[in-house]
Amino acid sequence: MNVRRSAAVLAAATAVICAATAPVVAAGPSPSASPALPAGLYGSTDPTYDGVWRQSLALLAQHTVGVKPAAKAVDWLTGQQCANGAFAPYRADPTASCDAKVMVDTNNTAAAVQALAALGGHDAATGKAVAWLKSVQNKDGGWGYTPGGASDTNSTSVVVGALAAVGNTPQDVRKGGKSPYDALSKLTLPCDGDGAGAFAFQPDKKNSLAANADATAAGVLGALGKGLVVEAGKDGATKTCASDTASPRQAAANGAAYLTKALAEDGHLKSALPGATDQPDYGNTADAVVALAAQGGAARAAKPLKWLQRNSAAWAEQSGPAAYSQLIFAAHATGADPRDFGGVDLVTRLNATGPAPKTVAAKSSDEDAGDGSGSGGVWWMVGAGLAAGAGIGFLLSGRNKRRRP
Questions:
Q1: Which residue ranges traverse the bilayer (predicted)?
Q2: In the chain, at which end, N or C, are there fewer CB atoms within 10 A of the end residue's CB?
Q3: What is the CA 380 to chain-centroid distance, rounded?
Q4: pLDDT tens, 211-238?
Q5: What structural domains and CATH numbers belong to the chain?
């Protein structure tokens, strides 16, 4: 997942493929925001399909590393909410009412909930959003990208993260007697055959399931009841596939076993986009690091983490705030230093893609501020009240989470 995209809107498909297959350029200072874009928005590219997603991830990542976002950045996100509580990918005129032409969706709504819940002080907004999410839950217990759409692993998992972020117990959120875990269990592959233990995105037209690495990274977190921001789980958690997928924790272990095998050779996952299958999928690899750390401990994610530290800088520079956020989530989940991630200060790079934050975690004195590289060691912060936050946050390589074949 090139910064994981949620099930993409069909009109965005061409743009997504072009972005994913474009040549990677050398990393350098992040471009300043376009004057044509809202002042509070992170990123300088067209926000039509990922504005709320990338803003949510950016704010969540900043909070996770002790950065207090600019008020106008938070206000921009809250201003995108519709009266019914839902969020669309982007509303150019947030003062206009959300009519039937405004394509609200579960992924952007759930991501916004995770960010606003972590920041605190937005109970009214998150309450309305969660109420809307519950109102569009499918009878199988899951969620699709759009209201009424067939349940998929990515959408169900990002909503699980939103529910957990506001203190709800996902198991207790039911429709037709079914919980999100019931929906996820139906999207898992058995422990024999191709894709053993993986999650599928959705059944195909023949109701068959195909392993999907992007969905599997999401499904592991969803089955664990977690979101985009996680603490490392206990080392030594089950590492083999077992048939008891009725247990959410076993389904998570099975998915993690699949990811471990997929990462074993190269340390990274490959793109599933047509014409780009030989290219690394940096975003999906970052999500896999988070999933593996959550399920089996930081050591289990060591190989793909090292690969990201060596290779992800140019991708993140090209992809923008959501990519930097995904890497920060990977660093946080494994205890790595987000200010010296393979020599790159992810926090400074992320902050540079939008309005200057109110408060920034401190750098060590011998860190090179010119190129964003760090001195290594344990990162630290100054200032009262800058506790690192968490909540889940999951899915799309810029997310609009993209649907994979």
A1: 377-396
A2: C
A3: 24
A4: 999 999 999 999 999 999 999 887 766 6
A5: 10-351 (1.50.10.20)
